[in-house]
Amino acid sequence: MIIIITESRNDAIGKYNDELIKSMKRLEKDIKYININNKIFGNKWLNYIVEIYNSFYLLFKLSKEDKILFTDPKAIKASIAFILHNEKYVIVHHLDKHPTYYKIIPFFNFEKFFRRFDKIIAISKFSKIQVEQLGIHSNMVKMVYSGVDHNLFKPTSKKIERFGERYLLHIGVEITRKNIKNLLESFSLLKKDFVDLKLIKLGGSGSSGNRKKTLYYIKKLNLENSIIFVDEYIKEEDLTKYYSNAELFLFPSLLEGFGFPIVEAMACGCPVITSDRNPMKELVGDTQILVDPTNPKEIAQKCKLVMESKDLRQKMIDQGIKRARLFNWDRTARKIYKIISN
After folding, report:
1. Distance (Å, whole) CA 31 – CA 20
2. According to the model, what pLDDT value does residue 285 have?
3. pLDDT value of residue 196
4. What residues in the chain have per-residue pLDDT under 70?
5. pLDDT at 99
6. What is the pLDDT at residue 217?
7. Do 2-147+328-341 and 167-324 show the same overall fold?
8. Pairwise CA distance, residues 57 & 133, whole Å
9. For residue 185, what pLDDT is reported?
10. The pLDDT of residue 141
11. pLDDT for the residue numbered 319
């Protein structure tokens, strides 16, 4: 039996887990799912204790014949791979830094960890390269793209009732790798040509410290009346309205493992301007516009180019919808099942 081990979370990995499990269930194969909630308390140290407890709990839930799939290599529960003798597989999103608990255990590092698995599944070519750069042989690493729900993410003519102005859209928390500072600087430059333009930012800040920095940049750039924060949870059926009604989707991220919003935006017929680095570049191919994420002037110029050219915008919409069809959850589930079952 294949056992997929996930945990409750409300970020991109949580979304990946939910969609993968829904698609795996449609395969109607011999698959079991164990979801763990490690965020019981408001204190992160207490939650660490819960996560350690749950990790040992897993050891008693698994039989030696089970094939185990972990969906996040950074979670403490995945470290039981050092003990388990089962066939083991792990999905890698991106590797930016070692988890905090690696510092406590001297012999832990990504290279030793990944060598405990029978196969490693990367969600993009970029993530695959990251793993291989640790010294893991390429035969051990399989690439399977994430998907998008095309029944949900598609162009809609429905409007967002509370927003009537022209706007750019950005989605993400306000951590450093999301490149908020350069995004705001580029938007400030663009405002010189489009005075009434707004920027709608979906997703929370990630922490009060992050929001404090963001507000500092907004005030410095005199954008107080031009940025609209939507921090509350938005249903995915409403999210399609934000994509479909935006002038364009701006995503100059510095580091991603995949980049769900890019594919969702393309599927909804929203032009995308994103970073000229992978995996963003590999997701859009030559259908959207790529920019140097560290160059606000270039970002602003490319945004202006799209907003002033109906032909270019329509071309990006048409090609983006077609490109998004490459990413399909049922295909993702079938490929992952094949890797494990073989």
Report:
1. 12
2. 95
3. 93
4. 76-77, 97-108
5. 56
6. 94
7. yes
8. 33
9. 97
10. 96
11. 98
Per-residue model confidence (pLDDT) at position 233:
82
Pairing of the two strands 31-36 and 67-70: unpaired
CATH of 2-147+328-341, one of 3.90.1150.10, 3.40.50.2000, 3.40.640.10, 3.80.30.20: 3.40.50.2000
* Domain locations in the chain as residue ranges: 2-147+328-341, 167-324
SS3 track for the chain: CEEEEEECCCCHHHHHHHHHHHHHHHHCCCEEEEEECCCCCCCHHHHHHHHHHHHHHHHHHCCCCCEEEECCCCCHHHHHHHCCCCEEEEEECCCCCCCHHHHCCCCCCHHHHHCCCCEEEECCHHHHHHHHCCCCCHHHEEECCCCECCCCCCCCCCCCCCCCCCEEEEECCCCHHHCHHHHHHHHHHHCCCCCCCEEEEECCCCCHHHHHHHHHHHHHCCCCCCEEEECCCCCHHHHHHHHHHCCEEEECCCCCCCCHHHHHHHHCCCCEEEECCCCHHHHHCCCCEEECCCCHHHHHHHHHHHHHCHHHHHHHHHHHHHHHCCCEHHHHHHHHHHHHHC
Which token pair is 7?
A: 């945990």
CATH architecture of the region 167-324: 3-Layer(aba) Sandwich (3.40)
Taking the whole predicted model, whether its pTM rises above 0.85 is answered as yes
